[in-house]
Amino acid sequence: MNTMRQAKLALVNDELKGLKRRNVHDHDGSGCGEGNEVQRQQLRMTSIVANKIRDAFDRLADLTKQRDMLIADLEHKFHSIEEVKGSVRRGEDLKQYVELLRGKSATYKALKKELDDKATDYGVLVRTKRLLEQQAAGDADVSTFEDGSAAVYELIQCTQRQLEQQGCRGCDLDECTIPTINEISVDDSATNSSEGHEKMCKNVWKRIAELDTKLQEQRAKVAPLLKQLKEVRTTLQDIETKNAEREEKFTETSTVSKRLFHQQAV
């Protein structure tokens, strides 16, 4: 099409050149002045028309170039739109995709609830650990007391056997005074006398009764703590078992979710 326009433009230019040559020839020849004036007017008109035609063809060429650029841009945009249409889900495919997203949302909520439960269990375990540490420290104090009481009891038993060998087994405890542990050991001069034997027997039996009473009181104080410790240990074992089951369930759910995500991505 552009070639045809250029050919027409060339033809008009040739005609214009021919008219100029004839005008020059007539001007140099014997033609009349009126005829030359008419030819000059025709030549001017032809020149004006030719210039307008040339301007029109130039304008048309620019518009044609712009049109081609717009067509290329539109084709590119249409191609992009077609690609986007191909990636948009429609109909049954869209419904399946929505159902998949709902399933993923439900899985996410379930996993989040599991994590919240685990965080709560973790807080319980931390508090239980602190309680157990405190009770373990109390058990250590009780063990120390029991060890010391056992040592004193052994000392008293040894002294009691010595007194039984000396015949002081049947003394009255009501008239005894409360001695200290250091009062159990007496010198040989006091032991050799009957009065010293009787006094030592009373003191020893009084001390035995006192220590036995204290030991019973301490055991009564420790018994509730030991019972509570057993209950806490049982609760801790139950929590650890539930936590292990939840961790196993969480691992299985996470594996299934990852597999589904991978399949969807593929």
UniProtKB/TrEMBL annotation:
Gene source species: Physcomitrium patens
Example GO BP: cilium assembly
Name of the protein: Uncharacterized protein
A GO molecular-function annotation: tubulin binding
InterPro entries: IFT81
One GO CC annotation: intraciliary transport particle B
